Amino acid sequence: MRTSTSPSEATVTWFKSSYSNGTGGNCVEVADSHGPVAVRDSKDPNGPVLTFSRQAWDAFVAAVRGGGLR
């Protein structure tokens, strides 16, 4: 994982998490491309971006779906 605000990450398409609520809280956006996966706080789109390898992101999603991260 690394933190970045590089221009290449600024040009990707961001998607809000389906678990984010509509009142402005708990908003996470993900930019899922063919390479690393970027994650940011939608309330601070110009703030830091965390990037994860595809393998690390897939393991995280599998753990969440499997109930391992409650």
Please describe what this structure looks like.
The structure is a single chain. The protein is an alpha+beta fold and 70 residues long. The protein has one domain (2-65). The chain is 23% helix and 27% strand. It is built from two helices and five strands, in the order E-H-E-E-E-E-H. A five-stranded antiparallel sheet has the order 1-5-4-3-2. Strand 3 and strand 4 (37-41) form a beta hairpin. The two termini are 21 Å apart. 4% of the residues are buried.
What topology does this entry show?
Layout: E1 2-4, H1 7-10, E2 15-16, E3 28-32, E4 37-41, E5 49-52, H2 54-65
Antiparallel strand pairs: 1-5, 2-3, 3-4, 4-5
Task: From the structure above, extract its key features.
70 residues, alpha+beta, 2 helices, disordered N terminus
Class from secondary-structure proportions: alpha+beta
Q: What's the total helix number? A: 2
Strand content: 25-35%
Adjacency order of strands in the biggest sheet: 1-5-4-3-2
Could you say which overall geometry the principal axes of the C-alpha atoms support?
A: flat
Measured as a percent range, the helix fraction is 10-25%
